[in-house]
Amino acid sequence: MQRFESSLGDAGAYDYAGIYAQWGDKAKALQWLERAVRLRDSGLLHLKVEPDLDPLRDEPRFQAIERELKFPT
Question: 18 phi and psi, to 5 degrees?
Answer without folding.
Answer: -65, -40
